[in-house]
Write a structure and sequence with these properties.
Shape: globular
Radius of gyration: 21 Å
Strand order of the largest sheet: 1-5-4-3-2-6-7-8-9-12-13
Distance between the termini: 67 Å
Helix content: 10-25%
Number of domains: 2
Strand content: 35-45%
Largest sheet: 11 strands, antiparallel
Amino acid sequence: MKNRISIILILFLAFSFAQTVCSQEIVNKNWDSGKIKGVRYVPYPSYQGMAFLSNTWLPGKIEFASGEIADSLFLRYSSFKDELIYYNKALSAQIVIDKASLNGFTFTDEVGKTRIFREYYYDDFKKSNRYFEVLSKGETDLLAFRNVILTTTMPYKDDSKILKNLDYEKNYTYYFYTPEHGYTSVRMNMTALLTKFDKTLKKPIKKLLRKSRIRVSDEESFINGWKVIEKEGYKVVF
């Protein structure tokens, strides 16, 4: 009896997943799904933690390098490999979209928030194009690189009773950016924020944040604080 229930449950979950991914019909008929270039997604090794920004498919759209928009897609962003994946119904396959073909993408997360990612060239020792989340868009952009890395941890057994000692761990980094000056990294706290301005401006900026009742202590409060500061015309020192 227990085996029968387990089989029924597995079949139900499989059917539900198939309905989810197969229901991703293309509403926008002005573009051809063949325009989306990429390769089949190969599953990552299974470890503790999350390799993706979200483990669920999220509704969104992509912008090609040409500026053309393809919408009504369901997307997953891989923080582990900085890849964007979508489900191709015609092939019944998950496709890693060719990064060079995109300007960026947008999706709605689990709480209904619109998340905007753009492709930027990052000129560090590993020169490459990266997807950055745009936390604030202005004369100076505030960006987040939602990176996940593999780290060594205490040995544990996975669901298959296999002994492992690695897990996926968040390694998010944040930057102020302008095309003219490039990037300057920043942490999500008040001290780090104030170091990005001339010494003579720190006192009036603190006063401005107190007046706005903003205490910078995490990502959300940092974004709110930066928007108030930028609105008043203060400039980041690169």
